[in-house]
Each structure stands twice: as C-alpha cells, then as structure tokens.
Amino acid sequence: MGVVATLLPLDRCTQRVHGAVRGQHTVTPCRSWDELLTACATEPVHLAIVDLFADGTASFERIRQLRTRFPRLTLIAYVTATPQRARDLFDAGRAGIDGLLLVDLDDSPQAVRTVVEQAEARGVAALLRHRLASMDAVARDAILIVITRAHMRLTSHRLSETLSINKAMLLETLRKERLPSPQKLIGWGRLVVAGQMLDDPKRSADGIARALDFPSGSAFRNMCQRYVGATPLEIRERGGARFVTAQFLRAIGRPALAEGLEGPTTP
Predict the structure, then answer these.
(1) Any bridge partners for residue 238, and if so which?
(2) d(CA 194, CA 30)
(3) Nearest-angstrom CA–CA distance, 113 and 23
(4) Which of 63, 72, 89, 196 is the most buried (most CB within 10 A)?
(5) Strand 45-50 relative to strand 99-102: parallel, antiparallel, unpaired?
C-alpha cells in the first residue's frame, strides 16, 4: 500500500481523497509545505495532492522543490477554479503537475480515482522520458502516450491521430527506430502501468486487468508471460514498473538504457 500525502486546507477535499483511495493507499494529511516536504522525506510517499494556493498564491517554487528533491513523486493539484487563477492553472502543467482536480466540479470519488491513476501513469512515463531523449521525437512521444493513456481504449488509429500523423507514417517511424507495431506498443504501455499498479500488494491481477480493460485476468497473465516472461507476482517481486520498463528497453534493443531500473525501490 502506497502513501498519499495531502496539503488541502479544505477538510471536505481531504475527505474526498480519503474516500477515493480507501483500501489502496494510506493518506497522510499535511498542514504546511514544510510538513509536506518532511513527509515525503521520511515516509514512502509516492503521490502528493496539493492545493497550489494553500498559502494564498500559487506556490510554484514549492512544486519545483518537490520535483528536485523527489523526482519520482507524482503531483496532483486540487484547487478551487476562479477566473483570476486561470493563468496559474495553465502554468501548473509546465511546473511539473501530473494531474488536476477542481473543487466541487470534477472531484467525485470516481473522478479522483481516475485522476490519481492517470497521474501515476504519467509519473511512470518519467522513468523513460530522459532515457529516450536521443530517439526520434514522434517515436518517443508514441511510447510516452501508450503509457500515459494506458487506462483508455487506445487503438492504432487513435494513437496516430493523437500524434497528428497518418498510420503509414507511424508504422514507418516505429520501424526505423526498431520499435514494435503500434498495437504491440500499446500492449507494452498497458504492462508498464500494470507493473506500477502491482507495486501495491493489495491490488490483485484480476483487479488490475479490469482497471486496464483486459478481457480477463487470464488474458492479463498471458500477456505478462508473452511480453516479459513473468507472472504478475514475479513482476511485483522484481520491481513492478521498473522491471517491465527494463524488459521493454531490452526488447527494443536498448539494454544499456535499462541499467539502474531493476530492483524494488522507494520514492
């Protein structure tokens, strides 16, 4: 079970987070940015949900501090939207925010769960982003998209549309970079996120299969064996997303990029 740290002045927001992640994560409420930094340094915090305006103004410097000290930390902003804050919310993405929740607008328990899952996927994508810096930009973006959109019913057609290129060009780009077909690449993206979900010992293979829209738990287990040669339990024991990411890099002929990835780690 992971630890979610919160910095949310509104009690009802903290309660909504508790309700959304109950049974999957432990929630550690913090009352100040310094307390949040301390929690991240002393507890296995993998995700922080913060009100950017907890001090009255947008605290982007605090976000940069969190990003610098805890590069694997996933960050979600949970704020009250006002016209005056529009520019700050636009800048939040550039500051390193992985997800956004708006108070009383899109913060139902299901909405919170969805944003948490999508933000965690973006956090996992960070494992690969700098390792793929020398790759063709379209190919690199394709890899990152299949990870960050693993919870969606992504298809080859939708992948090419998202990249703003036709399918023939996508196929040729992937071929030149010695990457698998779009459909297989989508499968890898789902497995990387599945590996991240397996880091939580309370998540079952069947539950992960449902969350990622596999036809069944058996279909998920079969894909694990075909792609990485391991069962879900073995993936969990070998490091979860980091293990799957390393296996992906080896599968595409880039074993040197997998160095330092394998083995269980904490944020």
Answers:
(1) none
(2) 29
(3) 12
(4) 196
(5) unpaired
- At 202 the three-state DSSP class reads coil
d(CA 82, CA 80) in angstroms, rounded, equals 7
Instruction: Give the start-to-end residue ranges of the domains of the chain.
Output: 2-107, 122-258
The reported pTM is 0.66
Neighbouring residues of 24: CB distance < 8 A, sequence distance ≥ 6 = 1, 2, 200, 202, 203
Q: Write b or e for each residue in 47-59: b if 16 or more Cβ atoms lie within 10 A of its Cβ, otherwise e.
A: bbbbbbbbeeebb
Type of residue at 5:
A
62 in the Ramachandran plot: left (φ > 0), alpha (ψ -120 to 50) or beta? alpha
CATH superfamily of 2-107: Response regulator (3.40.50.2300)
Residue pair 59/52 in contact (Cβ under 8 Å)? The answer is: yes
Strand ranges for the chain from DSSP E: 2-7, 25-29, 45-50, 74-79, 99-102
CATH architecture of 122-258: Orthogonal Bundle (1.10)
